[in-house]
Amino acid sequence: MHLDPVILVITIVLFFSMLMAYAAMRMKLPIVVAYILTGIVIGPSGFAIIEDHDLVTRIGEIGVIMLLFFVGMEVSIPRLMAGWKIAFVGTNVQIVISVVACVALSLLVDMSWQQGVLYGFIISLSSTAVVLRMLQDSGELELPMGQNALGVLLVQDMAIIPMMVILSMLGDSDKVAFSHIAIQVAGGVAILLFVYWLMRSKRFHIPKALLGSYEHRMMLGLLLCLGSASLTGWLGLSPALGAFLAGVLLASSDQSQWVHEHIGPVQVIFMAMFFLSVGMLVEIDYLLANIEMVFGLTLLVFLFNSGSNVFVMRALGEPWESSLITAGLLSQIGEFSFLLAAVGLHVALIDENMHTMTVLVIALTLMLSPLWHALIKRFSRMQGIYTKDRL
């Protein structure tokens, strides 16, 4: 009997995923770390079981979209908007601090200030996928600290578009078309109006005639998730933001429970693919050749992001315990920074070598983020700061 090589690849991936997941469980590490390590093992730097990284990345992006869709169903918009000071003011101040620091550093090391702006944008974005997964695993998403982190992540997702526009203007503008800027601005205004309408309107209801059988419900849930993501993506905004708003709309109805039950397992698979794609980005040969530089920059990112987030939250009146734990959550560089790095390469702000280094540092911060957050929590417990009832 002929063995389809695709089946063999899937089997090997599942084997390594289960093996890494078991090891992570024994060492009390988040499952995210297991998936990223699996990506390293099966990727080009490992056994090269899967070499089409672009395909895995595109499948993994669906996992991020579905994650935001499920989070939207668990979020209270009034409670989220109550933390507008942290979400809107805090996020923008933190972005400015990152840009100013990177511009100053770039001038000291004989780089251009435009490159400093690029790296300021890159390190200012945290990972929606990693942070929300850690909050869900720890059961802290509903705590004030979790809601603050969620608000920051959503504003960062909305900031990706103006960041891309600014980078395009700073780089080789001949390579960039500005025809979609008006659509992006209009899309952003439409999103804000939608959120306002959602808060003022009555409960949204899905007619029972559309639900039907188990298959109908699964298809409808996926249509709501991916359809809304496609709409915001067409407007030039983050697809994950559209999926989040669809989840919020569904949560305002009485139909959210069946969505969890029917498409929850599908989300797990796609989410795992995203973290596999992150692991596949790690180039072991380049890492070994530049190990001091890579880990030095990774540690610097963790320290700077943690420190700047603590400073901003304390300045906005948050208590020490909440500020420290939230800063540890937001200390990594996010998945959307891969896109900013690609834009920087495309408009000639950075070369191939700098892009490779940037991608590697981003991937390492994503992989090591759960460990860094665990260290922050351990330090907080030793100082008597961290207890759930104080967050």
Automatic annotation (TrEMBL):
It is found in: Membrane. One of its GO terms (cellular component) is membrane. This is Monovalent cation:H+ antiporter-2, CPA2 family. Belongs to the monovalent cation:proton antiporter 2 (CPA2) transporter (TC 2.A.37) family. It comes from the Bacteria. The chain crosses the membrane at residues 6-25, 32-50, 56-75, 87-109, 115-135, 147-171, 177-199, 220-251, 263-282, 294-317, 329-350, 357-376. Keywords: Membrane, Transmembrane, Transmembrane helix, Transport. GO terms for biological process: proton transmembrane transport. It comes from Mariprofundus aestuarium. Signal peptide: none annotated.
